[in-house]
Structure formats: structure tokens, C-alpha cells
Amino acid sequence: MNSENNGHMPVSGPLELPPPTPEEQAHCEKVQQRIRDAIIESGGDISFARFMELALYAPGLGYYTSGKRKFGNKGDFITAPELGSLFARCLARPCLSILEETAGGDILEIGAGSGALAGDLLLELETLKCLPKHYLILELSNELRERQSRTLEQKIPHLLPRVRWLKTLPGDFRGVMLANELLDAMPVERFNVRAAGINQLFVAWENDHFAWREKPADESIRNHIAPLSLPTGYLSEINLPAEGWVRSAADILKQGVLILIDYGFPRAEFYHPQRIEGTLMCHYRHRAHDDPLILVGLQDITAHVDFTAVAEAGTGAGLSLLGYTSQAAFLIGCGLEQLASGSDPEDTRRHLELTQQIKKLTLPHEMGELYKVIALGQGVAKPVRGFEFQDRSRRL
Asked: Considering the entire predicted model, what is its pTM?
């Protein structure tokens, strides 16, 4: 794997992984059995995308659908909204102008994590006197829906009537669609370029553990990868569900902006000649490693985002590319420096907390450079705030 921080900001680098508790081990064995059943049903192996889907989303068992705590210092990784309210306060600025232009539009957050972003964003928009009519949360995990509800009950009890949970995308939408670290958790296919052609990676059960297998890739993967002319031995990923999801979002966005925040690169960097082992990364108790076939159901599995593919999916579905930049540049463009200037240095604890948030969110070796922000819109005349400081759209 490349040596970069591969998303979710693991607190420590690759280390010896702590052993699971007996309860965790029992859960892991249940997830293993669910995946083994799928392998048997499929005749001996399943695609890696199917393996990743079951490991993360198998009902009641997968990493995101079981009760395991994922976010924060007691979970497996920390996301930007978990650091404090500064991220949401910055994000409120572009939301403000979009809500004003859509005249009564809503906010739809897809995959709201712990609910921290929703709570802080609504509080800041209340301060700015521009609350959305509704704050919609699309969340498939019952466990996360319950946690989000508890977070919002504690943080914004007076604004709860505006919050509604969804299981599917609405029929049409006007306003702001937000997704922070959504696309990286969608099941990806893995491929390996061989002398005879492009192979697709599958997962089998051999000698009491999951093992890799290779087969000639299907047509959709070959059509995406062959034009890249990657060298023999190049191993990487392709996220076709992310492209499909962006097209689905474009279909319902009648007026407004889709803002996606995630870690990744433009295609030329994603498939860089030196990134010969791809971007796949797992997170378990703040340790980052690159073996997705262990600790199933107990660890997160992610891959970086090809933002060129995201842009092409959106513009191909009729949206306009409104901006693309690093998270650091976006937050600065959203007024981070002005918000930070309001901190009182005499209040040592709060000032230190704010300083730490700024460092984590913006420094290149933290989240500032690896994380990117892209905006795609429909029927919006105003520029989206956050991209004036630096727009890298030409790099896509």
C-alpha cells in the first residue's frame, strides 16, 4: 500500500492489531458463516464487491448494520464532524446561499454517522437565520438511526420537528444534498492487470480462512480499465456503485447542489503508476491495515474515491460541475479563518480545542489535502461558496 493516510484519519499507523474480545470473535464467526453461505450459493467464490457488501452491510451482522461503535475515540476511526463543530459551521456558509436561492429548500444528508454534523449544522444555520424547512437523513442502519436520534435529542431538541429519516432517496428534491465519507464505503471491485488481460478478484473459503482468487474481469470493468493502459501487475479498485449513486442523485435533484466530501484523487492520480497496490484500507480500533479478509464484521473496509468518475457521472446525468478542491481550501473558502478569529485565547481549553480542530481539518498530513470536496448542481446561478479560494476542476 502507499504510505499516505488512507482516510478516516487513523490515530496510529499500521500496527499489530489488538485481538478481538470473545464477544467480537463470536460475532466475526457469524459474519464469516454468512459470507461462506454466499460463497457456497455462488458455486465456490464471490466477487470482492459482494464480499465487501456482506462484510459491511449484511442485515444485523455487517460492520455498519450491527451495534458496534464506529465513530469517535472509542470507535475505529474519527470523521471530520466528530472533531467538533467547526467543520459544520464552515459548511453552513455554502448551505446558506443554496437554501436562499432555492427559496425554502431542504437539506438531505446521506449517511449521517453519529448525527454530529446534522446537529451542528442546524445550530449554525439557526444562528444565520436560514434554517431549512426539513433536514432529511437517509440512513439504512437502524442502529445508526437510533444513535443519530439520541445525538439530536441532546443537541437540538427544539429543532427535532424539522428532522426526518428516510430509507430511500425521495422522488424529487430541492436544496442541499450532503454526503461526508459516503462513497468510500461503497463496495468496490478489485482488479489485477495481467499479461493476458485484466483479471477480477474474487473471494473463496480455503483452509479455514478467506482467500483470493482471480478470474477474467467482466465487460464493465474491462471497458473502464483497459483505456488506462496500466502496467502488468497493477492492482487497484473501481467503484461502479458510486457512479450509479451519483446518477441516481442527479435524477432527483430538481434544483440545488450535491456536495460530496471524501478522500480520493482525480483519475490520473488515483491510477498513478506508483500506486500499484491500489487504495483499499481497513480500520480497526484506530489501526489502519490493508487486509480486508480478516476481522469481518468488526472492521471498516474503504477505498479512495476517483473524483473524475464522480464528475463524469454527475455531468453525464445533466448536472453542472460547480467546483472541486481540497478540504483545506474549501474550508478556508467557507470562512474558516474568520470563524477561528472569534476564539478567545484567554479561554485556554476551548481555544486549544479549536486549534486542534483546525490542524486536523486542514494540515496536508492530516485531512486537509487527502480529503476533497466536489459540488455538482442543477438550476443554481450563484457560485457555491468554498471554491473561490482554490478550484481544481481542471485537474479532473
From this structure: 0.92
Distance of CA 36 to the CA centre of its chain: 27
Residue 132 lies in a domain: yes
The one-letter amino acid code at 367 reads M
Q: State the pLDDT at residue 140.
A: 87
Nearest-angstrom CA–CA distance, 46 and 53: 11
In whole angstroms, give the CA distance from residue 233 to residue 94.
43
Q: Which residues contact 74 (CB under 8 A, 6 or more apart)?
A: none
**Domains in the chain: how many in total?**
1
Q: Tell which residue, 203, 262, 270, has the closest CA to residue 236.
A: 270
Q: What is the DSSP string of 60-126?
A: TTSTTTSS---BSTTSSB--HHHH-SHHHHHHHHHHHHHHHHHTS-EEEEES-TTSHHHHHHHHHHH
Taking Cα atoms as reference points, which of 307, 270, 302 lies closest to residue 288?
302
b/e code 193-225 from CB counts within 10 Å (16+ = b): beeeebbbbbbbbeeeebeeeeeebeeebeebb
Please write the tens of the pLDDT for every residue from 108-150: 999 999 999 999 999 999 999 999 999 999 998 888 899 999 9
Vertex 63 angle, CA 60 and 68, to 5° = 80
C-alpha cell at 173: 428534491
Domain that holds residue 347: 22-395
Identify the pLDDT of residue 317.
98
Strands (E), 145-224: 163-166, 173-180, 189-194, 197-206, 209-216
Q: In this structure, what are the phi and psi dihedrals at residue 62, rounded to the nearest 5 degrees?
A: -65, 165
Q: Is residue 17 part of a domain?
A: no
157 Cβ neighbours under 8 A, 6+ residues apart? none
Cβ 56 vs Cβ 349: under 8 Å:
no
Q: What is the CATH number of the domain that holds 33?
A: 3.40.50.12710
Alpha-carbon torsion (333, 334, 335, 340), positive or negative: negative
